[in-house]
Amino acid sequence: MAPQKIVVKVRITCKRCKKDIMKAVSKLEGINNVSIDEEKELLTVVGEIDPVLIAEQLRKVKKFAGIVSVGPNKPPEPPKPQPPVCCTIPPVGCHPYPVCPVPVYCKDEYNPCSIL
Predict the structure, then answer these.
(1) Which residues form the HMA domain (predicted)?
(2) Which residues pair with 45 in a beta bridge?
């Protein structure tokens, strides 16, 4: 079974409710991630688990659950590569003619910089 994302509607009225829900659901095996949206009253569970087991576990703590959706877990999007950072080197010394700073592009702090 592949990991799936399960969204469950459950009534959350206080901090203790949230704590009881988290405690009850986290006892189940095969769960990778659990999160609660208090405003929307949604419990999101990611893992290899049957949605009915989640509803049964919530019923044990007197919380009645309605399964909103069950679907494949979307992997997190990889971070986009950042453009090179342009640094300027301040002019050194006194020159009779104007000195323009040279842009330097650094790949990261461990690799040497190259002047273009």
Answers:
(1) 3-70
(2) 6, 34
DSSP summary character for residue 113: P
> DSSP assignment, residue 64?
-
Q: Model-level pTM?
A: 0.60
Beta-strand relationship, 31-37 and 103-106: unpaired
Cα 77 to Cα 94: distance, rounded to the nearest angstrom: 50
Sequence-distant (6+) residues with CB within 8 A of 65 are: 8, 9, 10, 43, 54, 55, 58, 59
Q: From 74, 76, 82, 77, select the one nearest 105 (Cα to Cα).
A: 82
Phi, psi (rounded to 5 degrees) for 76 = -65, 145
Nearest one of 32, 24, 28 to 3, comparing CA atoms: 32
Q: Strand 31-37 vs strand 85-88: parallel, antiparallel, or unpaired?
A: unpaired
Tokens at residue 27, please? Answer: 């006892």
pLDDT tens, 29-77? 999 999 999 889 999 999 999 999 999 999 998 888 888 988 887 776 7
